[in-house]
Amino acid sequence: QVPVVESGGGLVQAGGSHRLSCTAPGLTFENYTMGWFRQAPGQEREGVAAISRSGLSAYYGNSMKGRFTISRDNAKRTLYLQIHDLKPEDTAIYYCAADEKPVGWLVDGLGIRDDFAYWGQGTQVTVSS
């Protein structure tokens, strides 16, 4: 069973907002720190945001603060990423990730660490100008 599955990608207009979702059918969702990463064409994967198991603590990559909102609904076993004021440079494959470690172990001064144990296959977001 695939541990983590993203959805919601597609072609979106610049300036608008869009929400991605992630479920973890192979995991006990509330027991996992969850994160979002993205990889743009020709670039390295970068951490967008991470959220604690309870959802009370959220962290953002250093270049991601302001336009991204991570949230989770443990009752629905779903993770969300809201992207505001979309820009063409947000075009990327967005990955959801899960790990049993506390969120504090998965973030540092450089941003969101990528040593999450479980990864989805990604969902493509393309922003048209």
Characterise the protein shown here:
The chain is mainly β and 129 residues long. It contains no helices and 13 strands. It has strands at residues 5-7, 10-13, 18-23, 33-39, 46-51, 58-60, 68-73, 78-83, 92-99, 107-108, 111-112, 118-119, 123-128. The chain starts with a strand and ends with a strand.
In the predicted model, the low-confidence regions spanning at least 5 consecutive residues are none
> What's the pLDDT, averaged over the residues?
95
Globally, the shape reads: globular
Please, what is the oligomeric state?
single chain
Helix proportion of residues, in percent?
Answer: under 10%
User: What's the Cα radius of gyration?
Assistant: 13 Å
Number of distinct helices = 0
Strand-residue fraction?
A: over 45%
- What's the β-strand tally? 13
Task: Assign the structural class, choosing from mainly alpha, mainly beta, alpha/beta, alpha+beta, or little secondary structure.
Answer: mainly beta
How far is it from the N-terminal to the C-terminal residue, by CA? 38 Å
Query: Secondary-structure element order, as H and E?
Result: EEEEEEEEEEEEE
- Main beta sheet strand tally, sense and closure: 7 strands, mixed
List keywords for this structure.
single chain, 129 residues, mainly beta, seven-stranded mixed beta sheet, four-stranded antiparallel beta sheet, 0% helix, globular
